[in-house]
Amino acid sequence: MPVREGVYGMLAEFNTPSELVHATEMAHRAGYRRMECYTPYPVEEAAEALRFHKTGVPLMCLLGGIAGLITGYGLEVWINVWGYPLNIRAMPLFSWPAFVIPGYEMTILFAGLSAAFGMLAQNGLPQLYHPLFNAPNFASGATTDKFFLCLEAHDPKFSVSETRAFLEKFSPVSVVEVDH
Amino acid sequence: MATQGPIHDPETPVDPMIDPRTGEYAVIAPGHNFRSVTQKIAGIVLTPNTPLAWWGGLFLAGTIALGVVIAVTWLVLKGVGIWGVTIPGAWGFAIINFVWWIGIGHAGTLISAILLLFKQGWRNSINRFAEAMTIFAVCCAGMFPLLHIGRPWLGYWLLPYPNSMNVWPQFRSPLAWDVFAVSTYATISVVFWYMGMIPDFGTLRDRAKAPIAKYFYGLLSWGWRGSTRHWIRYESASLLLAGLSTPLVLSVHTTISFDFAVAAMAGWHTTIFPPYFVAGAVYSGFAMVLTLAIPIRKFYHLEDLVTLRHLDNMSKVMLATGSIVAYGYGMEVFMSWYSASHWEFFMMWNRMFGPMGWAYWVLILTNIAIPQATLWWRKCRVSVWWLFILSFIINIGMWFERFVIVVTSLYRDYLPSSWGTYRATKWDYMLFIGTWGFFTTLFLIFARLAPMIPMSEIRMMLPQTKVRPGGQTADRVVEEAL
């Protein structure tokens, strides 16, 4: 768990994605690990620099899809064979082709909901408060046109003065200390 | 979709909207940066001055939407007998309008999902309001079958749930498949649409001045802060949802076509229905996107973001799907002869020259003749006025397609003694016209409260996004740091 009091991290603001990616890469090479980039649109190069490659979203989607298939198709089979068997046009009780569409739709429904809500859950959203919202320049830029790198205080290499000096080498627009 | 522009000599002034390297219309007008596109789109929502025309539009649309309230109230009081549906024409307006509205919705999903998978960057400008269109169209569509069942307050009987009557839905019927297809479609569309708006709600939260707006968008954004790890998961989820929505949208109209095709009715019992229904749905949906996009880009001055390139590309999609639809009509006529089935042949003859033959020729004129005669020409495809008019013509045509399919097969079937006719009543018209108002009302509210164009996706299309490697300085900095 992150520290709940004191400094959250050191936030550097950049004007271009290139500067951000460069600074992130250098911070990683310098040994910083607890850090995060904040950008107004997805910057894949920043994820590369953070060495963040794999997400759990596809797996959740797959599991959701399998659960949906079993639920949907299983429900139909149960209803038609055991729960409420009806003779329709002398078709067999287990008329598997007729059950394909609802089973398929349930697969998509469960998979889609798992992907969307799984993504939000893995991102820890909703999270209406975050320390970074305390930084005066964060709100005006991070979701509009500025690129931020935050080196977090619970990184063992973090020290207020050294980290600030480190970040200032990349000529950012500003370096701000963010409190919890 | 390469659009070859005119080759000009260097002396003459060049249209700034045409990219000189490719000769194509630019997807986004030159000279924009992250902040300018954000301001442009967020400004529409965050302005404290609601345009007077918006209030006027809302008033008009709301008044028309009252037709739904009145027609549904009367329907609930009196029963479906107030409609024109009767034996043999038991489907009537309810099913025509259901298929028409849900077909319109399909273009939104096509734009947001299929064009995303095909990496068609131009879709970014139009996908948000096309998705909104999908959801509102599905709202209108869902109303009709629910009312058509006669006792709409028992609509939940359609769902499989344990009950004291100990009965379950009959899963061998396409009508039960429809319930699953349409409800899944509505749910996934809403989720995809809302998920797409989360980062933009974050932008609105950060740019809002009024505390209530800050609070409102803050809640809607779920605390989005643009973290890179979040973005990567978000992109992954978007891609997965696009991959799921693509077969979903195809399956929905396929299932709807099964409502017809599974029945042993001349003119319905054909294998061409699924592809031809899907193509028709996309055709009418793109027409509706144009109906909405053209006034929006004009009224909100979004010509820089929804450019002629978009109109041209959408026209080409309409041309392609319209041609598939034309092929479908041709094949229906051919098969009615080639099948050597007396009933099929009579159905087609009756459809063309029977008492309701006029509807068939209206359909051919509006869906095939007029679009095919104009859309093959680039001049027509980039003429804003013509496209606006044509979008209405095509949607009238697509409505008549469903009218022809539903009515002309049903009212004269195998047994001449059971022939009848179909005539819609004023309540049918009131409900149908009311749904236009309902749709427009929802759309106007959406345009006022949510970003119509996805800001984060527009930012990704700007040239400033290119990341250049650190190079020499990188090594120097790392030396100093260590």
Descriptive account of the structure:
The complex is a heterodimer of chains A (180) and B (482). Chain A has six helices and four strands, in the order βαβααααβαβ. Chain A has two domains: 7-54 and 131-179, 2-Layer Sandwich (Alpha-Beta Plaits), CATH 3.30.70; 57-122, no CATH class. In chain A, strands 2-3-1-4 form a four-stranded antiparallel β-sheet. In chain A, 47% of the residues lie in helices and 13% in strands. The model of chain A has no long low-confidence stretch (mean pLDDT 87). With 180 residues, chain A is α+β, with helices and mostly antiparallel strands. Chain A starts with 6 loop residues before the first strand and ends with a strand. With 482 residues, chain B is mainly alpha-helical. Chain B has one domain (34-161, 251-466). Chain B is 68% helix and 0% strand. Chain B has helices at residues 34-46, 52-78, 92-117, 127-148, 174-207, 211-221, 228-261, 273-299, 308-338, 342-353, 357-375, 378-381, 384-410, 426-449, 455-459, 472-481. Chain B is globular. The termini of chain B are far apart. Residues 471-482 of chain B have low confidence and may be disordered. At the A-B interface, α1, β2, α2, α3 and α4 of A face α1, α5, α7, α15 and α16 of B.
